[in-house]
Amino acid sequence: MLLENYLMFVAASLAFLVTLGLALARALMGPTVYDRIAAINMFGTKTVLLIAVLAFLSGRMDLLDIALVYALINFIGVVAVLKLVVYGDFHSSGKDITKPVKVDQR
Amino acid sequence: MAFKYGVFLFMFWLLLSGHFEPLLLGLGLASVMLTIFLTKRMYVIDHESYPLHLSSRLPTFLVYIFREIVSANIDVIKRIMTFSDSSISPRLIEIPLPQKTDLGRAIYANAITLTPGTVSVELTKETIIVHALTKETADDLSTGNMAKAIPDQDIN
Amino acid sequence: MIIDILSWLLLVSGGLVGIVGAVGIHRFPDFYSRQHAAGITDTLCAMLILLGLVLQAGLNLAAFKLVLIFMFLFFTSPTTSHALANAARHSGLKPEVDSTTIEDRSRD
After folding, report:
1. pLDDT at A104
2. Distance CA B110, CA B104 (A)
3. Which of helix, strand or coil describes residue B120?
4. What pLDDT does residue B78 have?
5. Looking at residue A102, what DSSP letter applies?
6. Please, are residues C91 and C108 in contact by the beta-carbon 8 Å criterion?
7. Which is higher by pLDDT, B139 or C66?
8. Which of A24, B69, C23, C49 could form a Cys-Cys staple with C14, CB 3.0–4.6 A?
9. Count: domains in chain C
10. Contact C83, A82 (CB under 8 A)
């Protein structure tokens, strides 16, 4: 591969690492639990893009399948964590609860 | 209906794998059959989960929404870079929800959330509560220009 | 050659937009306004990066998979944002607002 092309993937990966660090800082600091979940969601989205860039950086196109699966797992995971936080368990359908559980917002 | 989507899913498998050995084709066929069986049991094969009747309006809508997303993104980026207390004025507004079908409502709420600067917070029967970052985005949404661009069409 | 320059531009601007979004989630004052900053990385940043990669991939299966990744992000990210904002509002988290145009209907 050409050196310039190699460098452009390196530049994009470095930018992603900065973004991931900032998102992780918000997840650790975040005053409310929703800030943390939003930061983790953003972290996941950036990870998907980072894996896609890494696939081109290393020339192994199999990694694109992993990025695809990670995009799905990220979505399911965030919704599951959100459900756990709001309802306290995984099996309530949401319609059963007229009044959501009071959440400790930290 | 189910057969059509089975063919569609099998083509999807072929595109994802890129292999044509008999074993892999057999495995693909088996997983397509399992998926069709499970979705039929769940009664989710209908016009709501596969909105093919809206596909004629899809290109115009996509062009519109991409243009909106890019311009809204540039606006929010400017506000982040020049951040002071006066550059944002967050507010909650309530705007009407003119779509008739559930699918149209879902597309409208998703389009509002996709454009940075507005996030749909809660849907009621006739209205939608939106958190807007600035007065301009809130006013822009209140004009209802976006609501007109949403594909909203009954099956009949 | 032109394609390489274009993907350079797209990838670098995509990375910069991502960093700006991450700075935004530190600068904005409360949860709801941070959602707008997080929305930037979900939409414009993903668009720029994946478009730059598609230009590098050319017309093959890899490009198709990149488009597929973009479609998944395009469909799932607004759903997640809405679910988060809705859950926060239902649990009684109040947004910091300049002027409320609707009366506050938190459920206590």
Report:
1. 61
2. 10
3. strand
4. 87
5. P
6. no
7. C66
8. C49
9. 1
10. yes
Strand partners, B93: B130
Closest listed residue to residue B108, CA positions, set B91, B123, B86, B93: B123
* Close Cβ partners of A105 (under 8 Å, ≥ 6 residues apart): A31, A32, A33, A34, C91, C93
Contact with chain C for residue B133, Cβ under 8 A: yes
Any CB–CB contact under 8 A between B11 and chain C?
no
Residue range(s) defining the domain that contains residue C28: 2-89
Residues B87/B94, Cβ–Cβ less than 8 Å: no
Predicted complex ipTM: 0.84
Each domain of chain A, given as residue ranges in start order, spans 3-87
Question: Is C83 domain-assigned?
Answer: yes
Q: What is the pLDDT of residues C40-75, one digit of tens each?
A: 878 888 999 999 999 888 888 888 889 999 988 888
- Determine whether the interchain pair B81/C95 forms a contact, defined as Cβ–Cβ distance below 8 Å: no
User: Which residue on chain B is closest to C48 by alpha carbon?
Assistant: B70
Six-digit token string for B91: 């507010």
Inter-chain touch B120–C37, beta carbons under 8 Å: no
A101 DSSP 8-state letter: P
User: Are the beta carbons of A34 and C84 separated by less than 8 Å?
Assistant: yes
Q: Is residue C72 part of a domain?
A: yes
Classify residue C36: in a domain, yes or no: yes
Condensed to tens digits (0 to 9), the pLDDT of residues A9-25 reads 898 999 999 999 999 99
**What is the DSSP secondary structure assignment for residue C93, as one 8-state letter?**
P
In a domain? residue C105: no
